[in-house]
């Protein structure tokens, strides 16, 4: 089944983005747009069909389309994001996703960001973080459990999202910064620790046998390559200033399309 990725252009207002653990630094918008374009090109090179939505200039974080939705083969769950400023980002995305999946919605008191959701087959790990609360995990469980998904909470303590601290890189291996999360729920997977001097390197995107990761983490790259995994480094320096990793800028799903026009 081919993979489809939804992405959205970088907002001209990205310098007003939410920040939780990062100190604000000036983002070069032109450079950020070029890096985002290179990210899209990388997805296309790896065989992914990319749906590129126009930027939302009034929504600084709207490029981070991973957060307003969690998409599995059966449904798309529209989240209620932890940062109130970001909630309007979900509207347009929901409209597009409704062509591919039936929609479900999380509602108050639940909060949940897609960046807190790591799915590995039928196991769905969900970060209990500053953005995602217990009600969010409960509501997500209620939606996904009937389809056979096992939702497992993971405590997040030192970073924005669960996937800031861990991501799946193939071969039953999870790249992890264990200082930022409780790794106990990940038992059963091989854990590959990022070097202490590259603490933000645990966010990578495993696609069609290739691990996409920021070029700024050469030691982590070497660790992954030493496992026989293929790495595709990309320059994400400007989006990293907005507290982003490689997974944040796309929402990726199997295209078993229900879109009558496709
Ligand atoms: N700037 C990404 C976020 O805080 O949601």
Q: What does it look like?
A:
The chain is of the alpha/beta class and 262 residues long. It has one domain (3-254): 5-stranded Propeller (L-arginine/glycine Amidinotransferase, Chain A), CATH 3.75.10. Helix content is 20%, strand content 25%. It has helices at residues 29-45, 90-97, 134-144, 162-165, 218-226, 237-240, and strands at residues 3-8, 49-53, 69-71, 76-78, 103-105, 117-120, 123-128, 150-155, 166-170, 173-176, 190-193, 205-207, 210-214, 230-234, 251-254. Strands 2-1-15 form a three-stranded mixed β-sheet, covered by helices on one side. The chain has a three-stranded mixed β-sheet with strand order 3-4-5, with helices on one face. Strands 6-7-8 form a three-stranded mixed β-sheet, covered by helices on one side. A hairpin with a 2-residue loop joins strand 6 (117-120) and strand 7 (123-128). The model is unreliable at 258-262 (pLDDT under 50). Glycine is lined by residues 17-20, 61, 64, 83, 160, 242-243.
CATH architecture identity = 5-stranded Propeller
Cα Rg:
17 Å
What does the overall shape look like? globular
Mean pLDDT figure: 96
Name the bound molecules: glycine
Given the helix and strand composition, which structural class is it?
alpha/beta
Which sequence of strands runs across the widest sheet? 2-1-15
The fraction of residues assigned to DSSP E strands is 25-35%
* Succession of helices and strands: EHEEEHEEEHEHEEEEEHEHE
CATH class label: Alpha Beta
Query: What is the CATH H-level superfamily?
Result: L-arginine/glycine Amidinotransferase, Chain A
The CATH topology turns out to be: L-arginine/glycine Amidinotransferase, Chain A
Poorly predicted runs of 5 or more residues = 258-262
**How many distinct helices?**
6
Number of strands: 15
Cα-to-Cα separation, first versus last residue: 14 Å
Number of structural units classed as domains: 1
Helix content: 10-25%
The biggest sheet, with number of strands, parallel, antiparallel or mixed sense and barrel status, is:
3 strands, mixed
